Amino acid sequence: MSKYMGFRRKEWLFLLRWTVATAMGFTVGSPFIVGVIIILGLGASDGYPLGDLADLILFTIIGLIIGASIGFGQTLALIGQAKQSILWLPVSIFGGTLGGFLVGLVSLTSLQLAFVLSVAVPGIFLGTAQKVVLIKFLKKATGWIIANIITWTLAQVVFPAGLVNMDPYRILNRIGDGLSFALFIDLIIIFASVAVISLITGINLTWLLKNFKKE
């Protein structure tokens, strides 16, 4: 497989580091997403009308958390691979927040459509914002946006397997039980779900670094 992909050992190591760091970043950030859902989401279910401002705030903050958590993990993975890798974090936060905000705007008219777009749209804007950093050390970075579109579309299928374990009532029960094996399994499922998705962007970025990195 290594020969087929054309990656050398150090490139496979970077791919592994990228995949693990991205998945770990989101897993660490997931409790904060649950917290926001509990504070705003459950409040909305108790009587706020459809399209209430709480929905806009909810999607925006979740987009911010996704951008920050994933961006932080990926920034660590990029150290030694990219120039000014520290910029990856702020542009990821911006892209994730903007995507979440736009989904929030959709929720003002259709909450169901907003939920459909809630995974894919922040990722698309995340990839577009991250291209700003990639063009500093890659000759061709457009493929990154394409990879993100594919990846976050796939997330619509893969994410539910992990995010179902982020149901607020379920998490509250887990917290009530204290640290437990069941909570550990929930986090492993979330980690594995994101790892599957981050592997695709990782392969794309590793290939771009191998073939189009600026000297």
Explain this structure to me?
There is one protein chain. The protein is mainly alpha-helical. Helices cover 80% and strands 0% of the residues. The protein has nine helices and no strands. Helix 2 runs antiparallel to helix 3, helix 4 packs antiparallel against helix 6 and helix 6 runs antiparallel to helix 7. The longest helix has 37 residues. The protein is globular. 40% of the residues are buried. The model has no long low-confidence stretch (mean pLDDT 78).
List keywords for this structure.
215 residues; mainly alpha
Architecture blueprint of SSEs:
Layout lengths: L1 H4 L3 H37 L7 H26 L9 H20 L3 H7 L2 H15 L7 H22 L4 H10 L3 H32 L3
Helix pairs in contact: 2-3, 2-9, 3-4, 4-5, 4-6, 6-7, 7-9
Give average pLDDT, whole number.
78
Secondary-structure class? mainly alpha
Strands, count: 0
Order of helices and strands: HHHHHHHHH
Shape: globular
Major sheet summary line: none
Cα gyration radius (Å): 18 Å
What fraction of residues sit in β-strands?
under 5%
- Cα-to-Cα separation, first versus last residue: 28 Å
Note the total helix count: 9
Low-confidence stretches at least 5 residues in length (pLDDT < 50)? none
User: Into which percent range does the helicity of residues fall?
Assistant: over 70%
